[in-house]
């Protein structure tokens, strides 16, 4: 096989960490090469070095056998390297075609020549066999479509090597399939693909070879055919991992929480939650599956009191709490918000301060109108210990912690007042296998202790593994309801994408 | 009173009053579309007004006056650009400082150069133009006669800007760095370059807006003669949804308010109330526009290139 990229001893330091430690890796032309590793293993850093966003402190990059110096994305693009970032790099109010041509415009005098660009793009799109409206604004696209725009951006620049950093994190299963079919076509056209993911099933499904990274080092590169999930997980974490959680069977308990016919108006003035009703009982996990942007976020925001209800009722242990203020409501349930950076933490506050957000007025943390820091530190140390948070100190800004450790702080805080009900929105988004396992076990433990958990997630493995009952949300409505045993991933996918809809939701209110 | 309001003269004077606002407002569009908030426009206009008077006074040529105002406006804008793009200082603070500099600086220089407190000597502006044929139509013809060339230039620039921003590669890139600088950067677009250009254009246009005030309006430089017009122009920009033609429309509305203010003086209502019209309208319009118009996403946010 012909090599296309060769990395030799790539090392990159960030203050206090070695993000890449003497990484050597060869990528062959036309292969789909997956890279896996825990949070902070250095995957994104390595990719950004190849794409010219970071300069390595040591090491060399060879393309087609020639040593190159990639100082900027512009140079990377000229070598045929393109990258789809972990967070989309799109401009929502621009049209698809504007997003694609930006920076490499075809001109007609001084004006933009959209016709010419359109011809080039249509050729690419036809060869890959999907459809997209080039003149639609990106803000109106689904996540899957937005991702195709990102890929088109690369192909329009004649990329031969495509780097995709966690491209499937936010996709529904059908969208993942569509993405994979595109990637397979690209690979058959001779393009090389580097693919990062935390989801080992996907990696095994799509890749030719897998490289595993741990703490900045490249641990191993193996042929996909010759490995399996457990071996990969073990290489990533450095210990054995249990990919399934144990759940004891439970009897139906008392009702803890109920919403009735909830309607919520979104920020754009349209109804985004349309008549949702469900209840949760003691000792169960209710999972809400759905592709992002189908009203789940607004549903949760309305429940916790961040958005006003247009109509409907919220009951906690049979008490109507619809009109109660956030501070009162907050004590009924713990809440792990879907965007921990925006709603769950204040990144520039210390770890300790983040441990008492929203609880700061409790008598046990204050002395009169002042915060009693000795008590706060004690509380924070307890959380750090109990949840095994890795942090050099509780006094550093929480910004410096990895995603998994930040999430543990949120969890610790929200469970510190022992609520009977926990709302967990996308609780493992972006977390690696080890941290995910930790969070999952915690949710199941809560359930086994007889508490109620509302789990909102776009990750079907998570929903199927943990939930006792499953609801699917599509376009603001609950379109399907199941008990755990009666549904599989594929079936849920049909409901999530609006292909199927139940007329009677027998599992929503029990 | 009604015939004072509903007269063609009201309309002509509305257009005249709208012109300096439109220049500044358009300047704001370029600056903020590129991602830099520019409240220094008030000060830029004031400097523009002052240096237009200086240039015209000493060279007896309004064209030189306008040239002076452009240079002055560009220099102030350049300071704002360096401070907010390179040093990433809070853009409101930088703008406020420049506005204070303008208020003090022009007053000081005016007294120094013209040797009189309050205002400059009389200066000659441009010779007005009549648009052939249409200006002869009774009534509506009034709008097309006795026009300052700067009014015509303003209209040309507004429509040209609309084209440039939305139909050219330059416009696409300028708007891109104001919406998502990271995205633009990863595609090889030089974020800082386009932001500097955006701010400098606002300096040029703000300067001309100021020149219109002293050259065409008052025919004299009066200390602090902008009287908050730079801010009203920013309100018009917001009301016009950060688009050239939209802003022009909003400026015409504010121009009308000013025209009414002038025409209503002396009809018996206490002048203090009449003087308030443009400012109250500004507040009402802003209160109504907020939430409906969407600023560029990265407006006012300094861009920090990831360190490599
Ligand atoms: N710009 C930066 N400044 C300082 N430290 C950084 C920077 N970028 C990454 N790091 C650190 O370098 C290490 C590797 O980070 P990187 O983002 O490459 O991990 P990753 O494998 O992509 O993780 P994830 O799975 O969470 O995306 C981490 O410890 C991270 O905190
Ligand atoms: Mg990463």
From TrEMBL, chain B:
Pfam families, A to Z = BPD_transp_2
Where does this protein chiefly localize? membrane
A single GO CC term, please?
plasma membrane
MF GO annotations:
transmembrane transporter activity
Residue ranges of the TM segments: 36-58, 64-85, 97-114, 147-166, 196-215, 231-257, 269-290
Q: Which domain of life is it from?
A: Bacteria
What membrane topology does the annotation report for this chain?
Answer: Multi-pass membrane protein
**Compartments in which it is found:** Cell membrane
Does Protein biosynthesis count among this protein's keywords?
no
| Protein name per the record | ABC transporter permease
Q: Which organism is it from?
A: Dictyoglomus turgidum
